[in-house]
Specification:
Elements lengths: L2 E8 L6 E8 L10 E6 L11 E3 L1 H9 L3 E2 L1 H7 L3 E2 L2 E2 L16 H42 L1
Parallel strand pairs: 1-5
Antiparallel strand pairs: 1-2, 2-3, 3-4, 6-7
Length: 145
């Protein structure tokens, strides 16, 4: 039997509340579970202590028995300690290609960059042109005197 430490959703529509449970991996998300070891309320501020409540000792016992936490629960467990040791060592499963912009966004960024370069070049030419005309204007004034 493969055990998972995962979130089971509760609460009403648009007001989520989660229980952290130990469940068989084949059981439905909100269905049968073995034991409830904590809860998670995402509506509370991130710095609130009541946002995540997990019994670290029970979690450590279940991990020792072979339960595997989901990514979200693993992140929570990595912040907890039992006897000075973290309950679980969480390694970010970040896919760097997932955050990369799509082809259309890249094309828009390239067009924006080209327009900015063209505007900078036009501004540089405009700044140089009056500087060249100024000595010519002074020369004309000297001739008229």
């Amino acid at each position: 039997m493969a055990l998972k430490i995962r979130l089971a959703r509760g609460g009403s529509k648009k007001r989520p509340f989660y229980r952290v449970v130990i469940a068989d991996s084949r059981a439905p998300r909100d269905g049968r579970f073995i034991e409830k070891i904590g809860n998670y309320d995402p509506r509370l501020p991130k710095d609130s202590e009541a946002r995540v409540n997990i019994d670290a000792e029970k979690a450590a016992e279940w991990i020792a028995k072979g339960a595997k936490p989901t990514d979200r629960v693993a992140r929570f467990l990595s912040q907890l300690e039992v006897d000075g040791k973290p309950v679980y060592k969480w390694e970010a499963s970040n896919n760097p290609n997932k955050g990369e912009p799509g082809t259309k966004a890249k094309e828009r960024a390239e067009e924006k960059k080209e327009k900015a370069e063209a505007a900078a070049a036009a501004a540089a030419e405009a700044a140089e042109a009056p500087a060249e005309e100024a000595p010519a204007a002074e020369a004309e004034e000297e001739k008229s005197e």
